[in-house]
Design brief:
The complex is a heterodimer. By secondary structure, chain A is an alpha+beta fold. Chain A has helices at about 1-15, 15-55, 80-90, 130-135, 155-160, 195-200, 205-215, 230-240, 250, 255-290, 295-300, 305-345, 365-395, 395-400; strands at about 60, 80, 95-110, 115-120, 135-140, 150-155, 165-175, 180-190, 200-205, 220, 220-225, 245-250, 345, 360. Helices cover about 55% and strands about 20% of the residues of chain A. In chain B, strands 6-7-8-3-9-10 form a six-stranded mixed beta sheet, sandwiched between helices. Chain B has a four-stranded antiparallel beta sheet with strand order 2-1-4-5.
Chain lengths: ~400, ~230
């Protein structure tokens, strides 16, 4: 085997330029795939992190009958005495923060512009709402006793032509099916770099939200963030004994998870196509080598080398090309991924219902993806080398000695 | 002792619908230690006969024996097994592996037969001395002259101490001095080691080295007699 490897290595050196470009083709293909995998992973992770941080939390505690889509404000669909429940949940060790939130549907209008919004009543002092406070770009954040203030997203402010201090008319559904209307003042304008969220979400203090929707001492949900996402199942299990429904982030974000699974499935097809194309370069290189060295194969056969050894020799050549390609691919891919991990990839204003995607995607390459794609590239290259190797192994000695004629 | 024997061997080549009969029924035997020339004009069947004896091809009909074993109907792998260690080849185009040095080319058949490293080293060193190329052992074929390459080929053919060495026009691509040197070495090795040499040639200067001359014409043996060397000419 050592001799075959030695011969294979030297045979590749006979035409170094061709061997280099063959490996480079594979390397470029692998680098592109590593970048794609990092991009997809970064996007999905980013979307999931954004959604957990801004929307779903690691879990939520709700009334059994609460339906997120309908955004019901009937008392029987809400959590009663949310502060008590928050205190109980917050006492669990894995819990970072728990806070009540009230959701309502509304219409915001200013001048002759109006748009549907989602009103979230929040505890302005809770650390869970820090992303919104940190995201303030103009004005001030809410205070718990503010009865007329709203904080709105920048895209919404742009759409309605509003600035800090401007009036905003808000109509909101109430618990008895009526609509309550009030003129509010824009206290602050925020951004979370997530256009889908920022363009449709309006914050007001929980107490005010309860008052305007007539849901005193009730909340739609208890929003919970954990210290470690991996603790979710354990905390869900610990809270299951209560009369409320405990919904983990995996359930709250089924769409994202399904989208990720679908994306990963399609990506496999994309990977195979890219690697298949690069593999044709390897096939071509080795077929040319077989035709160029037909007489030499005849000599080896005349010396008593069996077809199997000739096949192994050519497979050794494709293996060496694969190793070269993989090394180039990992180096190039790592450089590209490192760049986009640091600087990100600006994708602008993208929003899909239910998914929060930031304006910039930061690439994130996992060891698992790197290993998987490297092994896939190697295997496909070996398989590509199989056809020329079989061609060489099946040459009859006499025919080969005549130069294949 | 018979090293090789062919019985009424024919060989027909088919190229598309065209059939060419290269051998029309050849019967002969070669004894151990012989230094025999197969002579005849181009197309007489010399190379085809060498290929059949050398287990590189199968006859269309008839039988071929190596050391008493019928090799006529062996498959490709079985023929490779028979060749390995039993038959050495010297080709007119030298046929060295270009990426291997002279040492490595001679060593290759020993590797294929599973000889250990120490024994390989000793054997290759002896052979390099025998063909007077000890100082060129690490040179690759493109760094050797035609005569030197053919001497490496001779050493390679002898490396596994085969029963039989087949040489197809061994001096065809050499000038007269190198051709003479190659034939002198082959003759000397035949005398020193007793290895049987059968070589195909149409060069009269080479024929005179032979102890026995078998003449082929149109695929048949037309003459089978004592060569100039045996006759003391």
């Amino acid at each position: 085997m050592n001799q075959l490897l030695k011969m294979a290595f030297r045979d590749l050196g006979r035409n170094r330029r061709r061997s280099f470009f063959s490996s480079l083709a594979l390397g470029l293909g692998l680098a592109v795939l590593l970048l794609m995998a990092a991009f997809i992973n970064g996007e999905m992770n980013g979307a999931m992190d954004s959604t957990i941080r801004l929307q779903s939390g690691h879990l939520q505690v709700r009334a059994q009958s609460y339906d997120e889509v309908k955004t019901s404000l009937k008392w029987e669909d809400l959590v009663e005495n949310p502060d008590q429940i928050v205190a109980q949940i917050a006492s669990l060790a894995p819990v970072q923060v728990a806070t009540p939130r009230l959701f309502a549907s509304g219409i915001a209008s200013a001048g002759d512009q109006s748009t549907g919004v989602r009103v979230i009543g929040i505890d302005p002092l809770s650390p869970a709402n820090a992303p919104y406070q940190e995201g303030l770009i103009r004005g001030d954040f809410l205070t718990p006793d503010d009865r007329e203030g709203l904080v709105i997203g920048q895209p919404l402010a742009d759409k309605l032509g509003l600035e800090v201090g401007d009036p905003l008319n808000l109509s909101v559904n109430t618990s008895n099916g009526d609509v309550a209307q009030q003129l509010f003042t824009v206290r602050g304008i925020y951004t979370t770099q997530t256009n889908g969220f920022d363009s449709a979400t309006v914050f007001m203090p929980l107490a005010k939200a309860q008052a305007i929707t007539q849901t005193e001492n009730h909340a739609s949900t208890i929003f919970v963030l954990l210290k470690d996402k991996a603790e979710t199942e354990a905390v869900v299990a610990a809270l299951q004994a209560s009369s409320y429904k405990v919904v983990p982030w995996t359930k709250l974000n089924e769409l994202i998870i399904q989208f990720e699974d679908l994306a990963n499935s399609y990506m496999v097809i994309f990977y195979l196509i890219v690697l298949g194309v690069t593999a044709t370069v390897i096939v071509n290189t080795l077929i040319m080598a077989v035709f160029e060295r037909t007489r030499e194969i005849g000599i080896l056969s005349a010396l008593g080398m069996k077809g199997r050894s000739i096949l192994l020799m050519f497979l050794a050549e494709s293996s060496l090309l694969a190793v070269g390609g993989v090394i180039i691919g990992i180096i190039l891919g790592s450089l590209m991924v490192a760049y986009f991990t640091h600087f990100g990839f600006y994708i602008g204003k993208m929003g899909i219902s239910g998914m929060l995607i930031g304006n910039t995607v930061y690439a994130k390459l996992t060891v698992q993806d790197t290993v998987k794609l490297t092994i896939l590239a190697f295997i496909i290259t070996l398989l590509a080398g199989l056809y020329p190797a079989i061609l060489a192994a099946r040459l009859e000695p006499v025919q080969a000695l005549r130069g294949g004629k | 002792m018979e090293v090789t024997k062919v019985e009424n061997v024919t060989k027909i080549f088919k190229i598309g619908k065209l059939e060419t009969q290269a051998l029309r029924g050849v019967t002969l035997s070669i004894e151990s230690g012989e230094f025999t020339a197969l002579v005849g004009p181009s197309g007489s069947g010399k190379t085809t006969l060498l290929q059949l004896i050398g287990c590189l091809d199968q006859p269309t009909s008839g039988r071929v024996f190596i050391n008493g074993k019928d090799i006529s109907q062996l498959n490709r792998n079985q023929r490779a097994d028979t060749r390995r260690g039993t038959i050495g080849f010297i080709f007119q185009f030298f046929a060295l592996i270009p990426t291997l040095s002279a040492y490595e080319n001679i060593e290759l058949p020993l590797l294929l037969t599973g000889v250990g490293a120490a024994e390989r080293r000793q054997r290759v060193t002896e052979l390099l001395e025998a063909v007077e190329l000890s100082d060129r052992s690490h040179h690759r074929p493109d760094q050797l002259s035609g005569g030197q390459q053919q001497r490496v080929a001779i050493a390679r053919a002898l490396s596994t101490k085969p029963a039989l060495i087949l040489a197809d026009e061994p001096t065809a691509n050499l000038d007269t001095p190198n051709g003479k040197q190659v034939m002198d070495i082959m003759t000397r090795l035949n005398q020193e080691t007793g290895v049987t040499f059968v070589f195909a040639t149409h060069d009269p200067r080479v024929i005179q080295y032979a102890q026995r001359v078998i003449t082929l014409r149109d695929g048949l043996v037309v003459e089978n007699g004592v060569g100039a060397r045996a006759a003391g000419v």
